[in-house]
Design goal:
Helix 3 packs across helix 11 and helix 5 packs across helix 6. Helix content is about 35%, strand content about 15%. The chain has an eight-stranded mixed sheet, with helices on both faces. The protein is built from eleven helices and eight strands. By secondary structure, the chain is of the alpha/beta class.
Length: about 270
């Protein structure tokens, strides 16, 4: 049954290798990360053009982006490019184990693999590049809010080794259409109690451990991740930023403009 929950939570895009060789792999900002289990995953580190005469709101900051479950890095390249241009932030968008190019290495996606993946991205930013934790904004969308909340709710890495820079010291946590847990999202509060051992991405338990400011944006017409999930997490956040509840928008039709304006206000 636990395997069924995981299989439903990770509908990996089944695109041919040529899709990535003709798109993702032709970019000069692709970097390769290795998890603590030596799994190789791609990431894209976007650095927007700078204008010294008119610094952008997010200049000097880096957004660590975790995508939704039915997409991958190769599919959302236009979004992260636009996010970097709009905010002025560098954007590091990493891949989950078992997604995109990792899928061709016979890796399978699961909850723990997502945690290993975001840890690899955190290590790359804060240890390899030396980016201070307080200059990193952790941004998750949909199921990507699971690894995002998990990261900033702890001091160390999932492997057990200490982090050179504690993830709890991140500048902020930005959640778009967040889940409070996989089962609570799909089946409601009562089911999450009776099916607790099978649940994954239990954000409602971790949110009280988050120290950094937390911003949440959610469409009020979302039928995939109901807005009650975002509202529940906002109530649990120890350091909440004013939330943005968007009338008339669902899970996959949120326009760039209000999302980017909200992100800029949070920076």
């Amino acid at each position: 049954m636990g395997g069924l929950v995981s299989s439903l939570a990770f509908p990996v895009p089944r695109l041919p290798f040529s899709f990535y060789s003709e798109g993702l792999l032709r970019r000069d900002d692709v970097v390769w990360l290795y998890t603590c289990n030596k799994e190789k995953i791609p990431a894209v580190h976007v650095k927007p053009p700078r204008n010294p005469r008119s610094p952008a709101a997010g200049e000097g900051l880096t957004i660590l982006y975790s995508h939704g479950n039915a997409e991958d890095v190769g599919l959302h390249l236009p979004f992260i490019d636009a996010l970097a241009r709009a905010t002025g932030c560098d954007v590091l968008s990493y891949e989950y184990v078992g997604y995109s190019l990792s899928r061709f290495a016979n890796c399978q996606p699961d909850e723990e693999g997502c945690y290993r993946s975001i840890d690899a991205a955190w290590v790359y930013l804060t240890e390899t590049l030396g980016v201070p934790a307080h200059d990193v904004v952790v941004f998750g969308r949909s199921i990507g809010t699971g690894p995002s909340v998990d990261l900033v709710a702890r001091d160390g890495l999932r492997s057990g080794r200490p982090a050179a820079r504690s993830p709890r010291g991140a500048r902020g946590l930005l959640l778009q259409s967040p889940i409070d847990s996989a089962i609570r999202c799909a089946l409601g509060y009562g089911s999450s109690l009776t099916m607790y051992p099978l649940d994954i991405f239990v954000n409602y338990e971790k949110m009280p451990q988050v120290r950094c400011p937390t911003a949440i944006i959610h469409g009020l017409s979302d039928t995939i991740v109901p807005d009650r999930c975002g509202k529940a997490l906002h109530k649990l956040a120890p350091n909440p930023f004013e939330a943005c509840w968007l009338e008339g928008y669902g899970h996959n039709d949120m326009p760039y403009d209000p999302l980017f304006m909200y992100a800029i206000s949070f920076l």
